[in-house]
Predict the structure.
Amino acid sequence: MATRLKDIAQDLGLSVVTVSKVLRDHPDIGAETRKRVLKRMKELNYHPNLAARALVTGQTWTLGLVVPDLLHPFFAEIAKVISTEIRKHGYSLLIYSSDEDPELEAQEIRQLLARRVDVIMVASAQWTLESFRQIEEQKIPYILLDRSLQGLEANFIGVDDEAVGALATEHLIEQGCRRIAHIRGPEVSTAVGRLEGYRRVLASYNMTPMPGHIVSLGSSGDSRGERGGYDAARKLLATKPRPDGIFCFNDPSAMGAMRAIIDSGLRIPEDLAVVGCGNLSFSDFLRVPLTSVDQGNEDIGKRAAALALNMARKRSPMRPRAELIAPHLVVRASSRRMAPKK
Amino acid sequence: MATRLKDIAQDLGLSVVTVSKVLRDHPDIGAETRKRVLKRMKELNYHPNLAARALVTGQTWTLGLVVPDLLHPFFAEIAKVISTEIRKHGYSLLIYSSDEDPELEAQEIRQLLARRVDVIMVASAQWTLESFRQIEEQKIPYILLDRSLQGLEANFIGVDDEAVGALATEHLIEQGCRRIAHIRGPEVSTAVGRLEGYRRVLASYNMTPMPGHIVSLGSSGDSRGERGGYDAARKLLATKPRPDGIFCFNDPSAMGAMRAIIDSGLRIPEDLAVVGCGNLSFSDFLRVPLTSVDQGNEDIGKRAAALALNMARKRSPMRPRAELIAPHLVVRASSRRMAPKK
DNA sequence: TTGAAAGCGCTACCAA
DNA sequence: TTGGTAGCGCTTTCAA
């Protein structure tokens, strides 16, 4: 059906090998021959069969990416950046969305193994290390994105989550908040780290979270956390004393929380200051523009792409390395209670 | 490196063929043999090499998707839904983000051809039909998503854009708007269709767009249209008479437009009603919750997946078919100027 | 500078 | 029920 090297070779009275060499810019080919071959390739609209090539070379020129939710702008951006960066070097990206389901994720990783991708990247919802042991067994290089796993010494690229929590909490304190609550995420490293940073800063100010002031984002399934943030904030608003500042695990949950606050007739930031994390592109357009910790989404994607390309080329495994990205705060109306200090 | 059929066959004193048959659940295999083989496969953590299989069968079990901007929630949702749907049937998805660049898109389509994916899906930023002629030449089935192309008789799945424009415009008229402006999108079928619907409804009410009341979203590069919407709205606000309603090409541009309106001290919807399109998940959380035309994102993804699976199986090409999805309006505060009629 | 032979891991076909 | 042979389209190696 599709044109093959053989067709071109026959047309031109050459051998398949010669044509193959032209295809790959092999040096020892006569200028005239090369020209003829290239011309014929163009005429026939020839595309080399990458599956066949992969079978011989062992390289698929394909990378794999598994994220928990491709619709979440954070992961969408990472996917987009990686895809764009690696394309420049001839690689393509298989993308899977695991829906935060460890079983689905494991299945997707198995797919990636069967497809012999050159590098696997995962933002994992996994509880166990089994999937990663399997990857290691096949000697396929892999990178953990955003979320690290206990007991797994692997390449990791993500934000410094403790710094995220610290930054947000410190900011709220500076804005005069004294009863700072936290809406925490699920049991993955990001949520744990942010909680840790929050606790650490409070402690350093001799403060301590009041009872009921750390509440969990329920796993509301498909949603990114808007619903969970709403519900969590309702709980917080019912506590006494009421918090005067909330650090939310991420921006969607912060959006939900802000809605709950506004619905209850309170003002942001006067009655309650809110800080999120992710600095999503629409933060500026919300009812109250949202202060958020920026985790350098694009940076994460770019570094992941660069590392992956590096690993795809190297045959010898390198020592796993963790790249922690420093977060920074973007202050907007949702937390601005003091005049900016100079 | 990785385990092969041959390894398992040797271990068990069987032929490769027999093992291969077990792998594919071929009926005529002894129960005992099957059990032994499966056991050994599990032990060795065997994954069939799909590249090798693809070479023989001509099927890659891979579908390709090209979108203009994976970070745009509309396309992110389509990508996610398709990926999720096809996985159930053993297919994986290669995703590319073309950045609205026809040249990049053409390149990505060429990649997909080289990779012999079973079906190609494209939300195209193309001006010419060349890429699609190439796809046709290779006899790879393809589906156009969201945007159709003039003169190309192809499978298409997307919203009925004229209906989108009509729905939005009619709604604004019902809300008492009399000078309805339109912020139109770039020169692709979606923008053209929505403009057409807008014009048609105005005409049916014996209205006509005032001079300067149709303004173009500039191509502000990477952005989804927030910036373009802002700039476009500024232009509209400077016209006399000023519009009292704006139908925006999509939600991001509507967000930008609303910001411009608020910045200029006008009220939404009292002074100016705004309607967007896309019904993105955060529409509810904006400064003024945004009325938007829902184009059935999930539905588009599901139908695309179903059609693609169908095409991947069939060897015989079917007649191209267009599936138009009927949009519906989601009314929120940004346009609600009248009490709901009963 | 060119090409013949071998083989990548798997499946299709047909014979035992 | 099992397996030998051939071959998918390409690259690698080595000889001409």
Observations:
- Chain B touches chain A through 56 residues (CB under 8 Å).
